[in-house]
């Protein structure tokens, strides 16, 4: 079992449940030292370590608690080659710091990232339906 920090489409509990094949409790968390950018031509983002930490960059996301090993395996398949799972330190709203797994955009694919930040509210308003239509095939991942 592991905690998982999400910062894009998986912040939607329905998408996370479909990907993992399970429902997990969740709460808001903040990951310091990272930035979230749109992926060019896609509705989802990529997150990378901030190159310069002069503005105290951070990413607000959702932490899912106690995701099973099978759920993590399904997430690994869903995230694919662009992302690498890494353990990060996330601060919860109550101030507690916890370890969580997060999917970091791999350096060799950074040229796919746009110059602008990814916006969750914009995703909900105009990208979620398109994303779900394009990527819900992940529900049929092998057991």
Describe the structure.
With 143 residues, the chain is α+β, with helices and mostly antiparallel strands. The protein has a single domain, classed as Hypothetical upf0131 protein ytfp, CATH 3.10.490. It contains 3 helices and 8 strands; from the N terminus they run βαββββαβββα. It has helices at 13-20, 69-79, 120-135; strands spanning 2-6, 26-32, 34-39, 45-49, 58-67, 83-92, 97-105, 113-117. The two termini are 17 Å apart. The mean pLDDT is 90.
Give the overall shape, derived from the CA principal axes.
Answer: globular
The tally of helices reads 3
Structural class: alpha+beta
Note the gap between the termini: 17 Å
Report helical residue fraction: 10-25%
Low-confidence stretches: none
CATH architecture classification = Roll
Spatial extent as radius of gyration: 14 Å
**Major sheet description:** 5 strands, antiparallel
Strand order of the largest sheet: 1-5-2-6-7
The CATH topology is given as: Hypothetical upf0131 protein ytfp
SSE ordering: EHEEEEHEEEH
Number-wise, the strands total 8
- The CATH superfamily title: Gamma-glutamyl cyclotransferase-like
